[in-house]
Recover the amino acids of this structure.
């Protein structure tokens, strides 16, 4: 949800700061066991308990517990092919590099203090830099850029001029920092930003307000932002900005809502996410959710009926997108085929019933805030999916080939609110470089 700011500031004011490095090459406090089996990792974050757990996949055996680490949910994580998981620790106010341990014990291998909490995060296609935006509810927000080789930190401050969140992205050639401020998209050559040479943007484009969710399709040289107007797509050529078009939220005879958590599929061109008409919070059980599909290459848009109730953020793998819902009539996971050329492309190929939320399920007619919810993850190859039971400390393990829950994993803490999960595998491809 986009929040209101306490104040605005007319005009643009940009300030750059270069901050000294803090390097920590030791694991966070916790317990661990050697990773001896499985070809993947499942990371489960209990944000309410400030803990993070790493499991082997498919055995779902606990490999490590990291205590006193509170994953910043809004900015999420970026999972790199070499097993590094990039995240922000809201407890310490630090950017954290977690090595999930393909052949050893998962451990934290780097920390840098940055402005927290954070709103959005991303990496560049060459995996050299990480960027995260601050979430301070202030008239100015900060883009914190971390060199992933040296862990050197650069900061730049932006005048937001309104109510929107700062969305940073890295891409283009030469490498460019793209940021959305209220009603505008700016482009800065990254080399100039790092050298404190870019006082003004190299290019600016007008966009809508209400931004909440970025995507950058490097192969197509396009970026996209969720706004009240639609999914706004802008062509990029390094620091230059080209054609701008708006893809609508309403499509296929279905209307209402917008995709506030867009995810780029592995085909590098299609964006998926859930949309729903706006209703008062206490009417959550009446909410009818759709899947919104936008093709950044040809500009076509589709909406597919999904399910009623609450639908948290989608998880995407090479072959499948994983959606899931919470509803009084029963919760389920939905597996959508996202493989171009498949006979079932963009069709829901499985609806898998989930164990009910027990400890604190949301109550129809009341706001779901503070009640149980769910988070989900899927391995990059699409073979295993996971959906949490918030408040119950459990995770449903789904075999996508068998299309059923094959195990319920008990987590040491309750996962109040649903927590957060992400799955990694060696050799996975990174197409979507925005934090999820």
């Amino acid at each position: 949800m986009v929040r209101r700011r306490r104040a605005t500031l007319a005009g643009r004011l940009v300030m750059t700061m270069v901050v000294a490095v803090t390097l920590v090459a030791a694991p966070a406090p916790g317990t661990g066991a050697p990773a001896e089996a499985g070809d993947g990792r499942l990371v489960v974050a209990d944000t309410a308990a400030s803990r993070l757990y790493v499991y082997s996949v498919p055995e779902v055996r606990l490999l490590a517990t990291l205590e006193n680490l509170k994953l910043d949910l809004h900015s999420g994580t970026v999972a790199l092919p070499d097993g590094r998981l990039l995240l922000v620790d809201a407890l310490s106010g630090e950017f954290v590099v977690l090595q999930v341990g393909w052949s050893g014990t998962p451990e934290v291998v780097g920390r840098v203090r940055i402005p927290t909490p954070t709103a959005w995060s991303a990496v560049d296609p060459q995996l050299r830099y990480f960027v995260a935006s601050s979430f301070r509810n202030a008239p100015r927000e900060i883009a914190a850029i971390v060199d992933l080789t040296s862990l050197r930190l650069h900061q730049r401050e932006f005048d937001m001029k309104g109510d929107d969140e700062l969305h940073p992205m890295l891409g283009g050639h030469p490498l460019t920092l793209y940021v959305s401020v209220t009603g505008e998209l700016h482009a800065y050559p990254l080399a100039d930003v790092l050298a404190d040479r870019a006082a003004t943007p190299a290019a600016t484009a007008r966009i809508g307000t209400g931004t909440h969710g970025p995507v950058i399709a490097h192969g197509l040289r396009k970026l996209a932002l969720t706004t009240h107007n639609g999914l706004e797509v802008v062509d990029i050529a390094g620091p230059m900005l080209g054609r701008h078009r708006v893809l609508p939220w309403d499509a296929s005879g279905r209307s209402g809502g917008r995709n506030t958590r867009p995810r780029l599929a592995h085909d590098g061109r299609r964006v998926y996410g859930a949309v729903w008409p706006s209703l008062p919070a206490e009417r959550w059980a009446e909410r009818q959710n759709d899947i919104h599909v936008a093709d950044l290459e040809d500009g076509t848009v589709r909406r597919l009926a999904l399910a009623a109730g609450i639908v948290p953020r989608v998880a995407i793998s090479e072959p499948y997108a994983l959606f899931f819902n919470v509803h009084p009539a029963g919760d389920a996971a939905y597996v959508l085929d996202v493989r171009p050329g498949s006979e079932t492309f963009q069709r829901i190929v499985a609806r898998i019933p989930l164990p009910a939320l027990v400890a604190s399920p949301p109550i129809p007619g009341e706001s779901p805030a503070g009640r149980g919810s769910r988070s989900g993850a899927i391995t990059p190859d699409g073979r295993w999916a996971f959906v949490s039971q918030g408040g119950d400390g459990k995770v449903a393990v789904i075999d996508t080939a068998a299309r059923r829950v094959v195990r319920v994993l008990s987590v040491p803490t309750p996962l109040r609110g649903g927590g957060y999960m992400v799955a990694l595998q060696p050799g996975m491809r990174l197409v979507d470089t925005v934090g999820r």
